[in-house]
Amino acid sequence: MQCPNCGNVVSDEEIECPECGASLAAPAEEAAEGEAFAAEEAPVKPRKKRWPIVVAIVIAVVVIAVAAIVAFVMYQNNLKEQQLADSQAVYAEEHATTAVHIKAQMDDYVYDGGSGFPVNISGTDLDGNAVSGHVVVNSADYTTDLKRGQYVFEPVGDAISADGTVYTVTAASYSVVVNAMGVEVGTSAFPSVRPQFAKVEADQVTDEQLEAIASWMRATGTSSTTVDKLIEVAKQKREERITELARIEAERVAAREQAIMEAATDFINCVYDNSTSDLSTSRNRPHNLTYHYSPQVTPSSIEWLNTSLTSLDYMRTVDENTVEVSLSYRYGTKDNVKLYRVALTLAFDEDCKIISGAPGLSGYTAPADTSSNSSSSSSGSSSSNSANTRTN
Predict the structure, then answer these.
(1) Of 216, 243, 252, 373, which one has the greatest count of Cβ atoms within 10 A?
(2) What is the pLDDT of residues 78-102, one digit of tens each?
(3) Comparing C-alpha atoms, which of 100, 99, 102 is closest to residue 196?
(4) What angle, 0 to 180 degrees and rounded to 10, lies between the N-to-C axes of helices 207-219 and 224-274?
């Protein structure tokens, strides 16, 4: 300790300062008492509490932990939502429908006012679900929407154009695949279904065919008024065509009959022109035909044979290819001339050339002997009329 008087450092046991002799005990006691008094007088300072800091720290840690957890949960939720959205987008893309075009091959078909035609559609989509239904194609480029999958398109009915023309379907079915690349139709290069139809000639349309068309139209919801009207148009077209064909056929038959009549006339005129020649030496036999010789005439006496046509009794058409002719002629030798009548049935080809029925050819009927002892006397008068009965 220090001496309070001189400041000399002295031992704590000393009661007096060895340097100045000042008392050391009293001041120390006073100081102690003063310190004690000061301690009693001075207010007691409270001790600082540390638990709020700890609480704050704990709360901060908890908040940070909760925030981290919330952030993690939100991230996971967002990730799941994004994955779900991506999955839904993929699903939506995979399950989106694709337009399948149907373009029928029907020459001159008029859709506006026509029946269209029914197509059955069956198959399975990409999820394995069975698909079955039908559509009525009523436009030149008809579309129907389908999910990815494999299908069969089957046209199941004929059609009537607005003008009454009937078309019949000629193809059975079409295999259709809808995938991510688009539409594939069998082995066709076209990405569309193209049903083939053939136009039916109006006169070949049957009542059964029309009734079948009316039946599918009614079954698919077409009004009876529309159905009846379209069927009536088709029937009227059929009747008009039948009438037209009958007229054309009548004109053709008349022209044909006229043609073969003229050909038969030319043949008879040729026979007249050559009838007085010696048939054994004549080089002008009509149409290079071989004459039929009577059994009574032997080859050795042919040089004495003379034939003379006396009259054309009649000539008429049997049908469009056949003409029936009846001729009278004199036949015999110098000493024995008889009168005969022969009926010829001449058949002609498309070029109006005789193909059978002339003398010497198939179909020739040998003349019946109508002579009498007086036939020689009557033949003269018949011969005199030959020029008058010759055809022109």
Answers:
(1) 216
(2) 888 888 888 888 888 888 999 999 9
(3) 102
(4) 160
What is the average pLDDT score of the chain?
Answer: 75
Tell me the pLDDT tens digit for each residue of 222-260.
999 999 999 999 999 999 999 999 999 999 888 888 888
Per the listing, tokens 């301690």 go with 39
Beta-strand relationship, 192-193 and 337-348:
unpaired
Other CB atoms within 10 A of residue 28 CB: 14
Count of CA atoms in the C-beta half-sphere (13 A) of 8: 13
0.70 exceeded by the pTM?
Answer: no
pLDDT digits (tens, 9 = 90+) for 27-68: 545 555 555 555 555 555 565 567 778 888 888 888 898 988
Give the pLDDT confidence score for residue 46 in this predicted structure: 60
The answer to whether the CB of 109 falls within 8 A of the CB of 200 is: no
Quote the tokens at residue 111: 């859709």
Q: Residue 165: count other Cβ atoms within 10 Å of its Cβ.
A: 22
Domains and CATH numbers, the chain: 1-37 (no CATH), 98-222 (2.60.40), 256-389 (3.10.450)
